[in-house]
Amino acid sequence: MNLGELKNSWIKQFQQPLIIAGPCSAESEQQMLETAKRIKENNTNVPIFRAGIWKPRTKPNGFEGVGVIGLNWLKKVKEEFGFLTATEVANAHHVDAAIKADVDILWIGARSTVNPFTVQEIAEALKGTQKIVLVKNPVNPDLALWIGALERLLGQDIVNLGAIHRGFSTYQKTKYRNNPNWQIALDFKSQFPNIPLIVDPSHICGNRTGLAGITQEAFNMGYQGAMIETHCNPDEAWSDAAQQITPEVLGGMISDLKLRNPDLAGFEEEMGRHRTLISDLDFQMIELISQRMKISEKIGKLKKENDIAIFQPDRWKIINEYAVQKASETGLSKEFIEKIFKAIHEESIDVQNNIMIDRK
Questions:
Q1: What range does the domain containing 143 cover?
Q2: Domain for residue 214, yes or no?
Q3: Core vs surface per residue 30-64: b (16+ CB within 10 A) or e
Q4: Quick check: is 262 in a domain?
Q5: Does one domain contain both 94 and 180?
Q6: Which of 76, 183, 206, 306 has its CA 20 to 30 A from that of 5?
Q7: 157-170 pLDDT per residue, tens
Q8: Which residues does the UniProt record annotate as the domain Chorismate mutase (predicted)?
Q9: Looking at the domain assignment, is residue 261 inside a domain?
Q10: CA-CA-CA-CA torsion sign (322, 327, 333, 338)
Q11: Are 352 and 316 in contact (CB under 8 A)?
């Protein structure tokens, strides 16, 4: 069996969209029970309570989770409020402890997904389990690693699988803690539409203000659920305080979210017309870009003959400024136009470099 053949019927037992909520970290029994109680009171459609028991941190000497004792608090949450429970596992020891504590859903975090040895260890420890196992995207934008992690789990006969999109690290400063890079997640969804895809807006945003918007964007693209960090007193949280919300805020947020219908029934003809026009425009853009690159080749030959450096900062500045101006005039976003022109410019540099070194 391969990933594309999985039925993943586990998602059907939950109301759509599937909402997983709870604190970033388990801190105390009281904190866990109060958070669970208030989630239950304000959100009748949240079936799964999450909490981090072990917390991988970037630097040492920070709070790295309460450890095994927190699993007892998760059990109390299940017993008192009827939630299914979920936590992150990062090695075989975590898996063993979580299974003994009857945790229902396990997820592999972004820092673990990036390491095939770690994923293999976890997969072997989980071999044959019927528990639901979710895999977060790796910290770096690498689709193959994400898919590979799920394949390693399937290789150990783990078939109740799902994926969590939590965004990707970037050295650039953006409005996000972790850049969504929607296209990578959509490429995943395109290859494996049978694997439930859940958004983690808390880690994408890194703050409370953008959570609803990111979650709705994901639902607009056909995601089936969200994992949202929720704490009884977010401002005093021991980890990731800025991105956690109260159960009451969660309740309001969920009530405002709208799940989109994936079925095009009744709109096929009109949608087909629009898509035909888009395809025609796409082909025109490709042809124009091709013509532009042919001119870049001529410029590259001229620069080579006259020993002129390929990169001309003043020229790039003029192109960029003009592009941003045109973006404003046409109602397109500045960031979008800059991204397009940067990609074209990088390709033009490659074209001219090939000429400079006689690369065929």
A1: 3-256
A2: yes
A3: ebbbebbebbbebbeebbbbbbbbbbeeeeeeeee
A4: no
A5: yes
A6: 183
A7: 999 999 999 999 88
A8: 265-356
A9: no
A10: negative
A11: no
